[in-house]
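User: I'm preparing a small set of examples for a lab meeting where we compare how different chains pack in three dimensions. I only have the primary sequence for this one, and I'd like the structure in token form so I can line it up with the others. Please keep the answer compact; I'll paste it straight into my notes.
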Amino acid sequence: MKEITSIQNSYIKNLLKIQEKSRERKKQGLFLVEGKREISLAIAANYEFEDVLFLESFISEDEVLHLFNQNINRTIISKEVYQKLAYRASTEGIIGVVKGKDFSLKNIVFKDENPLILVAEGIEKPGNIGALLRTADAANIDAVFIADPKSDLYNSNIIRSSVGCIFTNQIGVGSSAEIIAFLQENNIDIFATTLQNSNEYHQENYKKPTAIVVGTEATGLSEIWREKATQNINIPMQGKIDSMNVSVAAAIVIFEAKRQRNFKK
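Assistant: Understood. Below is the structure token output for the 265-residue chain.
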């Protein structure tokens, strides 16, 4: 077991690059995850850990080994090093160095023949992606597809704002055209949330294989989704504004679909 006390250590400097730069995460195939809950969810999702760094004043070596229920590469770090690496203000004294997974559509497997899917197109804010992943987990849907992604999914803010739900959801990433082709090949109805040529969301039937598609609040969905949708849908707004947060909109439609399916998992 190693011990590192200096922030000038070359290994720590490299981890900071991974923490801060998307291109380094992609190049090295690694990302950092912080906190017991998030690490536990990553373990449950069969992520492979390259190393675990921990601060002994917050968590013991025995606790680390118990968390993983196996021997694992581990490094004791100083408070100075931990504070340099830690993303969150609150601390639990543990950071995992984790190997990323392939989010290709070819890896998507549905547990039954009637999937319910959330598609998010071009979402830029990591906090919104995290919130969408929490919504998807809460509804226990079959998959989340990220179309034309603007953020690296292993961005620390996505992991934090999703409270680890990046590890609990089946995720696929691709271009809008690739995802539409996948949905059509699998005979999955596409319901695009947009004001143009749309019906109110509660008038539609989501009992068959269904994909709910949401876009950014600023620009909405691109033309390809509006044109290829089985049906465009809208949420009737009854106040002064004409839009709501994307994760809220997604939740409204997803849980209507779940209601129609009698909340079956």
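A couple of notes for your slides: The two ends are 43 Å apart (CA to CA). The first helix runs from residue 10 to 20.

User: Perfect, thanks.
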